[in-house]
Amino acid sequence: MDLPEIALVNVLSRFPLKSIARFRTVSKEWRSLIDSDFFRDQYISFNSSSSLSWSIIQTNPHKLSLEIIGHHGCNTWGLDRSPASFLRFFAKTTIRKLLVLSCTDGLVSICAEASDGSPLYYIGNPLMEDWFHLPLPPFLSSPDLDSLRKNKRFSDTGFVTKMRSGVVVSYKVVWMLTHGRLSDKLDFMIYSSETGTWRKRHVSCPHTTDWERQDKSIALNGVLHWLSEDTPSFDASSFVAYDFYGGGDGDECRIIHFPGSQIDEVTGDNLSQRVYRRSFTTSEGSIVYFNEFHENETHTLRVWRLVKYEDCPEAWQLSWDLKLTSLTESGICYFPMVMHPLNSDIIYLWNWTAKGLVLFNLRTRVFSVRKEAEEDGKCMDGCSLSFNWCSEYMDSIRKYNLPGYQRGPNSLFFSQYVLPRWLHRLPRPLST
Fold it and tell me: What InterPro entries does its record include (predicted)?
């Protein structure tokens, strides 16, 4: 590669991806250069520490906006509005309802309900306005389709991706069929973008578990994770994980208990009666679990990172164990939402009292409150923060975080939609 071209690469690498997408139309030479592996690798390396735009998506069927909190103005993309605002959706029929099922590596899975009640499934890259209408499994019967529509035993549970050099090269859509609410067996229906076909996979579990919450999942590195319970309480005490790129028919999925399920590894206390507010999410490329509890007039927050897929205490590494004195002394009534997907020092809490978002830095103990009624402002990662019917959605799920419900079923109420670090279109089967 001659010097002028290297110089051009160095100059273009300093522009946001929004501009890079336009530069591809300048000439055939620029398009060829930008589409090259060399330029992609140089760009990702040069901008590896730059901030990314991302959104918090609500996962409950709701009449309000899909995105409730957005981050924009970040360096890598240079967007002047939130990422999910690009989620313009076009279908060939009238749509009555729209639900984001899951978000993974810049791609989005959507279920749209047609005017006649029929479900329509799409996978897409919203920024590229690239959508694929997912065909229904050919072996799905009419009763199966009705069960899927009513979320009975069937669940359109999520999808996983395969990454290569920062680019999504394939994906798999996963639907789950459970053998009753309590079961140690699962059937998966898997659509592969590589083959353009559906196939079934039969999987067993180490022991019987409750599948009441299998309709929500978290994807990371080709693995799906579901909340599960295998204790007398309705509380979700563990999660089930399965690797869809590494597993095969007849494999066994993993059940991994959350830390502190029985004995507090910090104090040694028996925790069977402790009431938690908790969830799990992703942050900095890892599964992260956090819980908050109130004991002896003290609010404590603990955050763990999953370091191995084994059901043992060594599976979790305690990252933070701190008292939330600064919050409670400020009169803030809150509940935990998600971790920042790119910075595990930052956790997002919702302030019931002020109807605002609390951005809490676990390392410095510094926090700030952003109210929905205020103008968009900068948050801790340098991005601009925007709200979209967030208070209304929080009110709709508030009962699940009241003391009377804290022993009831936990659910995943939020999904993180994080933009990728490079332009990539939606992978498609060779025949399409």
Answer: At3g26010-like (IPR055290), Beta-prop_At3g26010-like (IPR056592), F-box-like_dom_sf (IPR036047), F-box_dom (IPR001810)
Position of tokens 């028996």? 270
Region class of 253: left (phi > 0), else alpha (psi between -120 and 50), else beta = beta
Number of H helices, E strands in the chain: 7, 25
pLDDT given for residue 154 in this prediction: 61
**Phi, psi torsion values for 313, nearest 5 degrees:** -55, -30
> Is 242 inside any structural domain?
yes
Structure tokens at 362: 């676990």
Closest by alpha carbon to 156, among 115, 194, 203, 113? Answer: 113
With a cut of 90, say whether residue 387 has pLDDT above it.
no
Q: What tens digit of pLDDT does each residue of 257-279 get?
A: 988 755 454 454 545 445 567 78
Say yes or no: 85 and 7 in one domain: no
pLDDT tens, residue by residue, 362-372: 999 888 888 87
Looking up tokens 């009449």 gives 63
Number of domains, the chain: 2
What tokens does 397 get? 């799920």
Q: How distant, in Å, are the alpha carbons of 2, 113, 406, 411 from that of 278? A: 55, 31, 9, 9
DSSP conformation class of 393: H
Do 16 and 93 fall into the same domain?
Answer: no
* Greatest alpha-carbon span in the chain: 69
DSSP H or E run through 192: strand 182-192
Q: How far apart are CA 160 and CA 218, in angstroms?
A: 9
